[in-house]
């Protein structure tokens, strides 16, 4: 897998922009915050690995890559607006680097679709959401680790409440005609994702 600094540099190169000094280190520190168990550097690395394998599907690869870098940049386990705050951070940074208004709008939307409250319609949105959901189709061992990591992030929620809400979220994915929007991710992860989800619901 490409090291994080190289992935970061390529994302900005694809955009034709220069990142603000120190931003890479600031983002890495954010993903290393102690309240994170799943939404951590491990998740970011996994997302970037999946993106490398599916980069050819991206219409605007630089925008997808930057959106991946920022999509969980702000993560408050009790917060309701993490995606909004993460998108705002990305937009401020990109605007200061003189990104176009079109890029600002597209990156904002790419980050906001990771709320998973609506089916993405644009190809780059579909790709990014599939990358974010690739964990559902991970090996049984990694999926079990993921499930435990999410529970650790919500350790403050009583067990019966957590199980009820978590089951509802996972059932919503299982109820979809397809979990993944792209052929690339359906072929690689759909069957295993359904096995994994059925095993914890």
UniProtKB/TrEMBL annotation:
Keywords: Hydrolase. InterPro entries: HD_phosphohydro. GO terms for molecular function: hydrolase activity. SUPFAM superfamilies: HD-domain/PDEase-like (SSF109604). This is Predicted metal-dependent phosphohydrolase, HD superfamily. It comes from Ectopseudomonas chengduensis.
């Amino acid at each position: 897998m490409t090291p994080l600094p190289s992935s970061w540099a390529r994302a900005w190169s694809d955009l034709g922009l220069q990142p603000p000094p120190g931003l890479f280190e600031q983002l890495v520190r954010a993903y290393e915050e102690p309240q994170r168990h799943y939404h951590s550097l491990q998740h970011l690395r996994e997302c970037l690995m999946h993106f490398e394998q599916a980069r050819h599907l991206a219409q605007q690869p630089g925008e997808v890559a930057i959106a991946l870098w920022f999509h969980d940049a702000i993560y408050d386990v009790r917060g309701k607006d993490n995606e909004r705050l993460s998108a705002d951070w990305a937009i401020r940074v990109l605007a200061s680097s003189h990104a176009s208004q079109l890029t600002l709008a597209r990156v904002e939307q790419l980050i906001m679709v990771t709320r998973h409250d609506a089916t993405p319609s644009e190809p780059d949105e579909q790709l990014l959401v599939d990358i974010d959901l690739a964990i559902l189709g991970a090996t049984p061992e990694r999926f079990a680790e993921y499930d435990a990591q999410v529970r650790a992030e919500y350790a403050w929620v009583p067990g019966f409440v957590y199980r009820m809400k978590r089951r509802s979220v996972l059932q919503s994915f299982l109820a979809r005609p397809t979990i993944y929007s792209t052929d690339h991710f359906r072929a690689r992860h759909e069957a295993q994702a359904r096995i994994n989800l059925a095993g914890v619901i």
